[in-house]
Fold each of these.
Amino acid sequence: MYHNPVMLNESVEALEIIADGVYVDATFGGGGHSKEILKKISKNGKLIAIDQDEEALKNAFVSEKLKLIHGNFRYLKNYIEYLNIGKVNGILADLGVSSHHLDTEARGFSYRFSGNLDMRMNQKAEKDAISIINTYTETDLCNIFWKFGELQGARKLAKSIIENRENSKIETVDELVNIVNAIYPEHRRNKTLSQVFQSLRIEVNDELKALEEFLMASIDVLADGGILVVISYHSLEDRMVKRIMKSGNLQGVVEKDMYGTPITPFKVISRKVVIPKEEEIRENSRAKAAKLRIAQRIRNGN
């Protein structure tokens, strides 16, 4: 299986699908969410699915109701305008890496394998993890590890990387793992490696900026009463989703009009974050960190 979607039923049900509505699966992946959405819309309905990974496009299936786009979901508004759709009734995004990314050695997303340090979701992108590890300054590497991985000892790791690459170019997962293992005690290594690889992946794919642009675009393309559903996996992206759903801005500050009425594009439906059931967590390791948030586009400013 290319990808086992987390909280499949919960996320699709949260869309409250209208049979003749128009919906967006912003992260097509293995097509699991798309297939469930298509079951619930009529022949007059429409689903736009997006994925930047060419390998995900191999999971495409034939349906007159489906339009699959090879691209980054940060350009959501552009795609909707190009297709001359107007507004959509619901948007679903399952963030982070897919099971396929983590389990494919050649992609370099996981420290469990020995492939090259790639980590590109779009394999035509110029910047990969090898270029970052071998060209960024010590300060830049330190900032990445701290900002995107909240890694303790980020400066020490960055310095060690600089010293090692002076001897030979760092190109493989094993080479980076050995550098990390030489610095951190054994009981901290798995957590540390997760933080390091997460940091590099976010930098390679510009994930947080892309997510910001996608979330802000969703405000513009959702119809009044339309629903936004997002599944996140780490605190950085979850915090951004929560703030924009709450306030419509990155700061999470709700502005008010002259009468003291909150000015926000969304009504948050999931006041408490939705998490996977224990059974799903046992069956799907990715589910352990998953958080589902739901918001509805406010109708006519009310």
Amino acid sequence: MNTQRIIPCLLLRNSGFVKTRRFVDPVYLGDCFNTVRLFSEKEADELVILDITATPAGRPPNFDLLKQLAGECFMPVAYGGGIKSMDEMRRLFKAGFEKVVLNTEANRNPKLVEEAAREFGSQSVIVSIDVRRKVFGRYEVFVNGGRQATGFDPLAAAKRASDSGAGEVLLTSIDRDGLMEGYDLEITRRVADAIPVPLVACGGAGRLSHFREVFHDGRASAAAAGSLFVFVGKHRAVLITYPSQSDLAREAY
């Protein structure tokens, strides 16, 4: 069985899922419960749900909604967005989530990653790092939904995350988000080589061969995608899909 995972990444905005381009211009995808059910029926490897409004709005996770969503998932599911405390993480695990995703708060308070890894185990803690490519090819970490520059180098951020106990790093290219033109293999490879924990690449998948590229050339352990699984055709009509295992074996690995 192939151990490289291919993971739908769903962006939660209020009570519905959306898809962005370069972290802006969200397109509504439909009812969040129906979307999760479809990915469950299609036997996706895992699922990542990221609330893109929680942190910018300064509010906690919507626990009532998330508990209902977790009840629809028949695969491992991770949640990120607005998490600031151990108590919030305990509530998420109790609701049925297998993993938590820390982004802005991991940058502000790396000790929280250490505490979470110690209590829940490293395998349950993902640190998410959003990056933009700056002038002269330099990469920079952004937080708060891509709104705030940190001045931090992504390799240093990834090393700090793994040193703090994170079991995985989710690396998202803001520049590639939603464009469906392929992953940023350069930064993916550099970060993957710099850390001892699995790297999940995100941002840019537009066809199944992009997974093969990011696994082999980008050295990612897993690949997350959004647009590829929710849009079809040049007009980007909304259609929830997930490839069959035979298609993945032939084109993605």
Amino acid sequence: MSDSNVIEVKDVWKSFKTVQAVKGISLNIPKGQFVAILGPNGAGKTTLVEMIEGIQKPDKGEITIMGKHWKGHQDELHRIIGLALQETRLIDKLRVTETLQLFAAFFNIGKQRINEIIEIVGLEEKRKSFVVNLSGGQRQRLALGIALINSPAILLLDEPTTGLDPNARREIWEILNGLKDKSETSMILTTHYMEEAERLCDYVIIMDNGVILREGSIGELLKEYKNLDDLFVSLTGRRIYE
């Protein structure tokens, strides 16, 4: 592994029955970099991230996290990764603080970190509220807090703002930008929101039909285009939501 890369993906393939979801993808994620994997539904984004996070196994190819494979290093890797999904299932009858206490116990983390997380995700006024009474945006901020509880070296976010209203989406963005400014956490974000990728990430990987179409910094990708949507149209002949 390169000293600067926390994730390395080499020629990875994955299929489900008759669907070839990922087709020979290779990529490297350096330490501290925020990377967006951008593409429409069915592009292969989630499958790729599920292989990186150890949920799925590649049919072919190799994935290493901090130079280690999932096989034989599961416990160690789980401790350095934080996950937040599009729909994180939470226990409705637990309060916000109780929910964080539950996940903190998995890492032997004390009360101080729980209080820090509540402040980071802006749920101070909701710390005693039951999860069932939280809005969609508040639930997603709590899910992000759970992902951050162990101060992860790597944060994997799979479309975390899908279905949220614009204000709730921006609240998530503010939390992530704060994390970017104050830590060396590396992040992979899957999204089909162009603005989200541009606002949060240093580097963008554009996927469609299981392959990488283009990748680079925002500056590199937008040299000839006004925005990422126009670039996607030039690559595929359609807009990302079509």
